[in-house]
């Protein structure tokens, strides 16, 4: 296999090891770091003294898997599925994955045309419960669409529930999305998402550590989450129970120093309990894409200031607001009383009252002044007990 990046022998060795060593195996990662992928592959293929830190039984199991490995066939199967193998040393390799240390993937199988490295530079993970509520699906899709519209890549796991809603939200907005699978990229999982994952491969990227044809297991789902966390600038959790696998992604993100965010839900919802626990710790509460981008984006990418509607009294000068607030709610008041309550002079109070009358806030009643009906509602709503 020729091409820029890792030498052919190194690439073949890593394809071989991807078939033999499970994702996230830190012992295997340490072997590769200390001895190199070519030397580790040769030892596993040819036998001899076991490599360190493994029992004889485990070594025998690895050797049995090595005997069945055929890297040239895996590369051929990947080409037929429209996939390529990207490994450290390639121009397309995403540098943030190196933060995983010895748990770094040996390589990644990638379906889709865009560059994984370029897309990872400006990406956010959106993950959450498989059995999500309508609220969770709505929030995931809305967040993903908002992120996509702002030029961010949405990364998720391709699963039912929040993952699927996030992918669809990004695609619906004409944006970019990446599905990180816990199986071979040539066999979409879950089966019910075959059309969605194929669409992602056409418009975005489908990524996985496991060789073509490999099936998912519970442990592989958990280990897949570390790749989602490492690949992105931050992780948003939308609905998660206390034992949700999406919380493993959030914890991995925290260990890697990435931003961790959560979307709040009803306090009575078990599907939001895990998110709320995350928010009680290091997680940051977010409610829309602008707040996510403010956290993970570059300097100056700020969310708009949140405030209620602008009322007519908000446009008044401070002195006029004080005089308006000094008027009683249900009766007229004379100028000296109003000036005393507003802590100003009578001359200033008179000037402010005529200004407020011109604006429709007050009206004359003999020698006194009274709030208009519209102003009475406005001022009463602004008076809160201390």
CATH architecture of the largest domain: 3-Layer(aba) Sandwich
Overall pLDDT score: 91
Unreliable sequence segments: none
- The CATH topology label of the largest domain is Rossmann fold
The CATH class of the largest domain turns out to be: Alpha Beta
Count of DSSP helices? 17
Strand order of the largest sheet: 1-2-6-5-4-3-7-8-9
Please tally the β strands and state the result: 11
Structural class: alpha/beta
Give the topology string: H per helix, E per strand.
Answer: HHHHHEEHEHEHEHEHEHEHEHHHHEEH
Major sheet summary line = 9 strands, mixed
Radius of gyration: 30 Å
Looking at how many chains there are and whether they match, the oligomeric state comes to: single chain
The total domain count is: 2
Percentage of residues assigned to helices: 40-55%
* Straight-line distance between termini: 74 Å
Strand content: 5-15%
What's the shape?
Answer: elongated
């Amino acid at each position: 296999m020729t091409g820029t990046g890792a030498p052919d022998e190194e690439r073949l060795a890593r394809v071989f090891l991807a078939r033999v060593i499970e994702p996230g195996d830190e012992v295997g990662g340490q072997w590769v770091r200390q001895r190199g992928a070519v030397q580790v592959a040769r030892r596993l293929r040819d036998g001899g003294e076991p490599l360190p830190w493994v029992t004889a039984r485990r070594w025998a199991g690895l050797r049995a898997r090595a005997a069945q490995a055929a890297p040239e066939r895996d590369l051929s199967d990947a080409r037929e599925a429209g996939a390529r193998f990207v490994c450290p040393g390639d121009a397309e390799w995403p540098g943030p994955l190196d933060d995983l240390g010895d748990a770094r993937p040996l390589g990644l199988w990638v379906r889709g045309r865009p560059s994984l490295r370029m897309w990872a530079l400006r990406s956010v993970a959106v993950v959450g419960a498989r059995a999500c509520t309508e609220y969770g699906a709505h929030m995931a899709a809305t967040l993903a669409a908002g992120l996509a519209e702002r030029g961010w890549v949405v990364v998720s796991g391709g699963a039912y529930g929040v993952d699927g809603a996030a992918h669809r939200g990004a695609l619906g907005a004409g944006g970019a999305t990446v599905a990180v699978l816990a199986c071979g990229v040539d066999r979409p999982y879950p089966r019910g998402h075959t059309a969605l994952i194929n669409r992602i491969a056409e418009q975005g990227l489908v990524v996985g550590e496991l060789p073509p044809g490999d099936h998912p297991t519970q442990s592989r789902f958990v280990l897949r989450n570390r790749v989602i966390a490492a690949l992105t600038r931050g992780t948003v959790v939308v609905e998660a129970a206390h034992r949700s696998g999406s919380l493993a992604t959030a914890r991995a993100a925290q260990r890697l120093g990435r931003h961790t965010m959560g979307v709040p839900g009803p306090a009575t919802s078990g599907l939001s309990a895990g998110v709320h626990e995350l928010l009680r710790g290091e997680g940051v509460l977010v409610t829309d894409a602008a707040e996510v981008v403010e956290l993970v984006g570059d300097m100056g990418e700020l969310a708009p200031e949140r405030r209620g509607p602008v009322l007519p009294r908000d446009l008044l000068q401070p002195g006029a607001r004080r005089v308006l607030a000094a008027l009683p709610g249900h009766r007229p008041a004379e100028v000296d009383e109003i000036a005393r309550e507003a802590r100003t002079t009578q001359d200033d109070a008179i000037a402010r009252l005529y200004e407020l009358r011109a604006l429709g806030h007050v009206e004359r009643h003999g020698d006194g002044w009274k709030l208009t009906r519209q102003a009475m509602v406005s001022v009463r709503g602004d008076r809160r007990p201390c």
